[in-house]
């Protein structure tokens, strides 16, 4: 996923990496009998004032941003594939071992790429980390009872995913 381009400016020519950093997340669902699905979410501290509780819920996932030094300068380069990032982040945040499936959606952001994966399989033991309010993270939430302080973009992604499932396998 490393793209290299030569940038020419009036001052100098330099080699730089373009769009090499990425965020990988996964949508893990489990059936709740005939009542629908539950989605796995993780809780993290909020870095903005957007959530009054001081924390927010999100889909499991994270960035690949390795810092390295080349020719005396700090360079952000990613040594993992998006799939490898997903496997590592899922294990760190949830305790589960996952086998990623196909990319459900890829988003091209200003300084990175964002990948949302389907899950082929999930195994292992869920982590139990304490969070504010006496709850634990990660948690399985019924689709119709998602937490209020779930990232809006992740709420939308879950909705898109459920809709795609309904279209692919109508009752």
Automatic annotation (TrEMBL):
Pfam families: NUDIX. This is Nudix hydrolase domain-containing protein. Gene3D superfamilies: Nucleoside Triphosphate Pyrophosphohydrolase. InterPro entries: NUDIX_hydrolase-like_dom_sf, NUDIX_hydrolase_dom. Residues 20-164 form the Nudix hydrolase domain.
